[in-house]
Amino acid sequence: MKNSLPTQNIWQVIMASSAGTLIEWYDFYIFGSLSAIIAEKFFPPSNPQLAYIATLATFAVGFIVRPFGAIVFGRLGDMVGRKYTFLLTLLIMGGSTFAIGLIPSYHTIGILAPILVLILRLAQGLALGGEYGGAATYVAEHSPDNRRGYYTSFIQTTATLGLFVSLGVILLTRMLMTPDDFNNYGWRIPFLLSVLLVIMSYYIRIRLHESPLFAQMKKEGKTSTNPIKESFANKENLKLVMIALFGAAMGQGVVWYTGQFYALSFLQKTMNIEFVQSNIIIAIALLLGTPFFIYFGSLSDRIGRKKIMLTGMLLAALAYYPIYKAMDNIGNVQLKQEQTELFKIESNSSRTESGELVVKSSRVHTYTDGSILRETADKKELTVSRTHVTWLVILIFIQVLFVTMVYAPIAAFLVELFPTRIRYTSMSLPYHIGNGVFGGLLPTISTILVTNTGNHLAGLIYPISIAVICFIVGMIYLKDKKGIPL
Questions:
Q1: Domain membership flag for residue 144
Q2: CA torsion sign, 413 to 419 to 420 to 422?
Q3: Helices (H), 235-366
Q4: CATH number (domain holding residue 441)
Q5: Residue 20 domain boundaries
Q6: Which residue spans adopt a coiled-coil conformation according to this UniProt entry (predicted)?
Q7: Does residue 370 fall inside a structural domain?
């Protein structure tokens, strides 16, 4: 069925779909961006490293349940409609995020704190599992066949923009208050603000009409009565699902999370880069890289989706080790020359959430390259020079370019792979297994590898291996269907 809606209508659809999806990603990523603080607040303080890994695991749980959300909400979307399904996922996501901002700390309610966080992360993951497939399908089913990659690429920007907005809100909140106030209660503000964004997005989305392809199919009585069975019990369709997962989605997932989330984790936990500085580095790299989603989405309309996605995976697998080796060297104080005459000890006092007065002493080391290291009994913070900030932005920007190559074309690719009557269900599952399981587990698996081996680069074994496997499977089995009528 050829779709030729006026461009004005398409842009209205894109703006409404993207606004809601961006907010859902914002909600989802606040947790990851504040994982170091959440580890302190919601988990037992006796073992900080274990608490951080537990926080990453809780973060990963939200990804692991995404495939189940894809099945539940995909079925709903194929039976009831695209519009009402992603309205529901928006409300679940926003409500869960707001509630995380209200949970008392471990100091106040003990083990109940991490249990509540886990439950809300499960709700977030289920909602996000239904969101992406609905938004991507909705935009694709409104788009002209020969511009599908271009128009759906705007949906693809929302994940990165959601991370960018979450970092921006966190940084603004942090810079408007003292570090102690932010650590005590200010970190909750980004979670609580999400309720305002959700209300705004819901108002925009409720005014949309149903997808024309789905509306016509429903009018003719051709909608699926059992989309789960048709998607996964049908041998031919199941084969397409498996090809989509192992030939595209799992490689895209690890490249996406390495280039953004693992990069942030590496800056903060491995290199010990100061909180504000590390977030600014990531934010600048994301801002510079985001336009390339549109470029590669549009390019995929001309040369095909497969070439761009697989090239991105291969380049990422080849480049990760030298990129992270260069990053690690920038943060390695053993390679720096200290100006011993500038060494000093600073003391400051602050109050905890419970009102207890705490006095902290910091040893301050200054190095000839402009770096400054502050050490306390339980923490190290490295502030690097402007030159090193520039180099780190460049190194992470290169990783974001790989992200745009693998991610920009994948919505159009998945939509074109499956028939309209079961598209929401069929495309959502491989996408969310690839991203939720293979990608979402990456920060946890990589952090465990680094912790157990003591090798800062050991965490790269996982994303490089997955990207290479996916590249090989994709080269053999992927077929390009760019521009086919839906």
A1: yes
A2: negative
A3: 235-244, 250-257, 263-265, 275-289, 291-303, 305-331
A4: 1.20.1250.20
A5: 7-337+379-477
A6: none
A7: no
